[in-house]
Design a protein that fits this description.
By secondary structure, the chain is of the alpha/beta class. It has helices at 14-21, 34-40, 43-50, 65-76, 91-103, 121-126, 133-146, 156-166, 193-199, 208-211, 216-229; strands at 4-8, 29-33, 54-61, 82-86, 109-113, 151-153, 170-173, 203-206. The structure holds ligand LLZGTKA7. Pfam families: OMPdecase (PF00215).
Length: 232
């Protein structure tokens, strides 16, 4: 499977997003999340794809099954490379989402978010969720994969154990912080690109370490080289 760096386009509008993309001399794997999508709507995805870039549409659907299915149907025509939902939306929501993609013969990868990488164990306690964070990620991951997900969004810290316990899946890991940047921002379960590669991540998601770098293109190249160097 091709491994890649997915660049999070967490911008407040299309002008900023296009200005950023213009810095790249090649097609890249992008992630369009709630901030940009809710501001610009589906046309932002169409335009980024028209420019040759891949798109992970990171809207994290989390609702009753019928509403999740409607959301999946609504984004089908965008033909994105990845789309996702929150696994606590439940088995029925996930099974139906996968069926909709399969029936449409879509090649979109369906991912489920386990536990956000900004969370640690005490955040689970605040939500009255018992058990260790690793166990919660594993049980959500198992439920999601059994229900038909192609892959999981989790921390790179969990990938090795998850693949050992649940078998192979597409592991997409945000919370990536290059050496020296751990503990920055709101991310709690972080790893460097090299650690993520060694742990078995298939795709790393990187936002601020690239976006806020003095030279985003250089930062992207360095992160990609570090991630792919570890490939076996
Ligand atoms: O568990 C999750 C799920 C999604 N994300 C998203 O990834 C990027 C990370 O951005 P950074 O600036 O590199 O922290 C962001 O768009 C999140 O919405 C995540 O971080 N964790």
């Amino acid at each position: 499977m091709a491994k890649d760096v997915i660049v999070a386009l967490d911008f407040s509008g299309k002008e900023e997003a296009y200005e950023f993309l213009d810095k790249f001399d090649q097609a890249i794997y992008t992630k369009v999340g709630m901030e940009l999508f809710y501001k610009e709507g589906p046309d932002i995805v169409r335009e980024i794809k028209k420019r040759g870039h891949k798109v992970f549409l990171d809207l994290k659907f989390h609702d009753i099954p019928n509403t999740v299915w409607g959301a999946v149907r609504s984004v089908l025509d965008l033909d994105v490379d990845m789309v996702n939902l929150h696994i606590p939306a439940g088995k029925k929501a996930i099974q139906g989402a996968r069926e909709i993609l399969d029936q449409a013969k879509s090649s979109t990868i369906l991912l489920g978010v386990t536990v956000l990488t900004s969370m640690e164990e005490e955040d689970l306690r605040d939500l009255s969720i018992q058990g260790s964070l690793k166990d919660v990620v594993k049980s959500y991951g198992k439920l999601g994969l059994d229900a038909g997900l192609h892959g999981l969004v989790c921390s790179a810290q969990e990938v090795e154990d998850l693949k050992k316990d649940l078998g192979n899946f597409i592991a997409v890991t945000p919370g990536i912080r290059p050496g020296g940047q751990a503990g920055q921002d709101d991310q709690k379960r972080t790893m460097t690109p090299a650690q993520a590669a060694k742990a078995g991540s298939d795709y790393i998601v990187v936002g601020r370490p690239i976006r806020n770098a003095q030279d985003p293109l250089e930062a992207y190249r360095a992160i990609k080289a570090e991630f792919l160097k570890e490939e076996v």
